[in-house]
Amino acid sequence: MSEEKNIRLIVTRQDDPEGESYTEEFTLPYRPNMNVISALMEIRRNPVDANGNVTSPVVWDMNCLEEVCGACSMIINGKPQQSCTALIDQFEQPIRLEPMKTFPVVRDLIVDRSRMFDSLKKVKAWIPIDGTYDLGPGPRMAENKRQWAYELSKCMTCGVCLEACPNVNDNSDFIGPAALSQVRLFNAHPTGEMNKSERLESLMGEGGLGSCGNSQNCVESCPKGIPLTTSIAAMNRDTSLQAFKNFFGSDKA
């Protein structure tokens, strides 16, 4: 009779934001087409470690389970990625699960991504609407612009690009590549363009484009394949033009 196949998970855990991290190993029966989330669910159903000791269920974040919400980001075998699309068969055993290090740990694999959302607030990554009534259909975008803008709109604020970026750390206030790319997206919108100069000036201050080291890790790690470095290059150009406009006191495009 063939020996039953198992998978091994080594999970970095932390009981609270101020606690010390530690690791626990778990052994689970293998099933075809398992992803990391389904393995964590097995631990939640039966929280027993590899030595047979009863422990607390591992805590992690998730929502859509189809790589849309961005909530389930974690480090898997040293690489930040989405755990819902991370198939067990893709990894060498044991599979090591860790929380992303760029963000403060809340508990186990859950991190506080407020830093990223605060960056989006800083660059005003939204389209202001004047009034609470129906304003009718908005202006149309040219098809060629709509196509590349759609690629930028795929950002799900998962935080993977910030985790991969060496310039996003405790010693830097760099807003990160996700927010930079969103400035390009909203400045391209026919209505969002009205606040273009305001967004660009937010990139010209502390923590903006000047803090980018051009490592290009972000575009390599983005699970949606967003052309982040292309956006960064475009924002470098636009902020240079904005600086000239500010110097000569012109608000014209």
UniProtKB/TrEMBL annotation:
One of its GO terms (molecular function) is 3 iron, 4 sulfur cluster binding. It comes from the Bacteria. Keywords: 2Fe-2S, 3Fe-4S, 4Fe-4S, Iron, Iron-sulfur, Metal-binding, Oxidoreductase, Tricarboxylic acid cycle. GO terms for biological process: respiratory electron transport chain; tricarboxylic acid cycle. SUPFAM superfamilies: 2Fe-2S ferredoxin-like, alpha-helical ferredoxin. Its cofactor is [3Fe-4S] cluster; [4Fe-4S] cluster; [2Fe-2S] cluster. Its EC number is 1.3.5.1. Gene3D superfamilies: 3.10.20.30, Alpha-helical ferredoxin. PROSITE patterns: 4FE4S_FER_1, 4FE4S_FER_2. InterPro entries: 2Fe-2S_ferredoxin-like_sf, 4Fe4S_Fe-S-bd, 4Fe4S_Fe_S_CS, Beta-grasp_dom_sf, Helical_ferredxn, SDH/FRD_Iron-Sulfur, Succ_DH/fum_Rdtase_Fe-S, Succ_DH/fum_Rdtase_N. Belongs to the succinate dehydrogenase/fumarate reductase iron-sulfur protein family. This is succinate dehydrogenase.
